[in-house]
Amino acid sequence: MSEQQKTRISVDIYGQTYNMVGSETTGHMRLVASMVDDKMREIHAHNSQLDIPKLAVLTAVNAVNDYIKVKEQLEILETELKKLKD
Where are the bilayer-spanning segments (predicted)? Predict the structure, then answer.
């Protein structure tokens, strides 16, 4: 993908402005930023003593955990679908 086709936007995550560059739509990139911001605020609400680096790492850990769960569910559904087709 060429540099001209990349989407560039500024987003606010947990009070900080970040410049995002990617191949997704602006709406998608804003949704991702919003979800990260929401998760950081949720974690902070449960433990206000965390500094920002620890908060960011816990947010990443939560996101990867959610990803793994969804991936496992998808694999189960794909297996069930294959059985139904056979």
Answer: none
Instruction: List the beta bridge partners of residue 9.
Output: 20
- Per-residue pLDDT of 11-22, as tens digits, reads 999 999 999 999
| Cα distances (Å, whole numbers) of residue 25 to 20, 32, 35, 44, 70 | 11, 11, 15, 29, 22
Whole-number average pLDDT of the chain: 95
CB 9 within 8 A of CB 25: no
Could you tell me the residue ranges of all domains in the chain?
Answer: 3-85
Radius of gyration of the chain (CA): 17
* Whole-structure pTM value: 0.84
